[in-house]
Amino acid sequence: MKKVLMAASESSHFKNFHIPYIQRLLDGGVEVHTASNGDFSLDGVVHTRLGFRKRLLSPANIAVIFRLAKLIRRERYDAVYTNSTLAGFAGRMAVILSGSKRTECRHICHGYLFDDDGSARSRVYLMFEKLVRGHTSLLAVMNADDLRIAEKYRLGGKIIFIDGMGLDTEKFPPLTAEEISRQRARFGAENTLFLCVGEFSPRKNQSAVLRAFARLERTDCRLIFAGGGALIEECRTLAETLGIAGRTFFLGHCSDMNVLYRACDCLVSASRFEGLPFNVMEALYCGETVLLSDVKGNRDLSDRVYPYNDDAALAGLMETVKPAPRENKLPERYLLSRCLENNADLLRYNL
After folding, report:
1. In whole angstroms, what is the distance from residue 243 CA to residue 22 CA?
2. Can you name the residues that pair with 35 across neighbouring β-strands?
3. What is the CB neighbour count within 10 angstroms for residue 132?
4. 336-347 and 19-27 helices cross at what angle (nearest 10)?
5. Hey, which of 190, 219, 305, 341 has its CA 20 to 30 A from 312?
6. Which residues have a Cβ under 8 Å from the Cβ of 284 and sit 6 or more positions away?
């Protein structure tokens, strides 16, 4: 029986993206182990909890690499799947340190945290990718910019393009008009509702959305944030400073995003980097208009983008948004049913 390890920095990664793929491997007779920060439970899967820290070169992450290397030597995996930047580097470095000749490493890039712009930041991140490229037998990327970077610097032995991991439409069923009206009433049903989704972080850049919203001449709108994170209080303070606190809502973590997507009129993103943003795909599927920063990942999903960090440009676009009839705006190739068929064989490369 073939045996594989899937590594991610957080167990939510498995829950949000990988369960259908894990199940496909299990159904094919492959033994699946997972490793991440946090707990993960799925019938037939063996999970190892790891102490990842967000800072790439944290001593804790170095300890994780050696622990993973020991695990790889003991379990003799046929393949290790790695995801995202942190677990991607740690997992592939662990394969190298394990000394295992039989273990292939397949990396799923959910978005490089750098551009090919020659900046100091980009050179550092690219250096780490180059360190492990020789042990990356399969590299999957999911936006056009990352594909160009991967091919230019030969960051994997076999490089493939995928349309993400797939949106599970069962999580986003249609709602009745009454259900939508009840949700809109929380914020003022007569208003145009702007929604910003994601962890409050420098990468998601919510402060730029607040500054743009403060520029609006129109008053028939509200701005809603869904998500928590280290910078949420800083953004609350900024909203008060800008004089828009009365028209801004900070909801924290939301368990039922389907209701929010279907009640709001427009998703706004000011992200600095993206892979293939799920929140944008979810909003498009639920019929929202989207206004996105002109960065990789966003560009793959919409041509309605504005120059990155240009508050005035974003405000200008927001001025034009009005409630509109709802219909699915997400191309079929991004749906889970399509991606699972297109990706499964590729991700089982040589198993």
Report:
1. 48
2. 7, 48
3. 22
4. 50
5. 190
6. 290, 301, 302, 328, 329, 330
Report, as an integer, the average pLDDT of 39-64.
89
Is 318 within 8 Å of 297 (Cβ atoms)?
Answer: no
Q: With pLDDT > 70 as the criterion, what percentage of the chain qualifies?
A: 99
Report, in this order, helix, strand and coil percent for the chain, each rounded to 5: 45, 20, 40
Distance (Å, rounded) from C-alpha 134 to C-alpha 132?
5
Quick one: which of 188, 291, 298 has its CA closest to 248?
188
Q: Are strands 221-226 and 192-197 parallel, antiparallel or unpaired?
A: parallel
Query: How is residue 298 written in tokens?
Result: 């966003």
- Condensed to tens digits (0 to 9), the pLDDT of residues 55-87 reads 777 888 899 999 999 999 999 999 999 998 999
What backbone phi and psi angles, to 5 degrees, belong to 327? -150, 150
Residues 328, 340: Cα–Cα separation, whole Å: 20
Residues in the chain: 351
276-283: long-range pairs with CB below 8 Å, 24+: 276/110, 276/111, 276/142, 276/143, 276/163, 276/164, 276/300, 276/301, 276/334, 277/301, 278/16, 278/164, 278/167, 279/197, 279/198, 281/164, 281/167, 281/330, 281/334, 282/167, 282/172, 282/257, 283/195, 283/197
> How many CB atoms are closer than 10 A to CB 212?
25
Single-letter amino acid, residue 335: L
State the pTM of this model. Answer: 0.92
pLDDT of 153-174, one tens digit each?
Answer: 999 999 999 999 999 999 999 9
**Burial label, 256 (beta-carbon count in 10 A; 0-12, 13-18, 19+):** exposed
Q: To 10 degrees, the CA torsion angle through 173, 177, 179, 184? A: 110
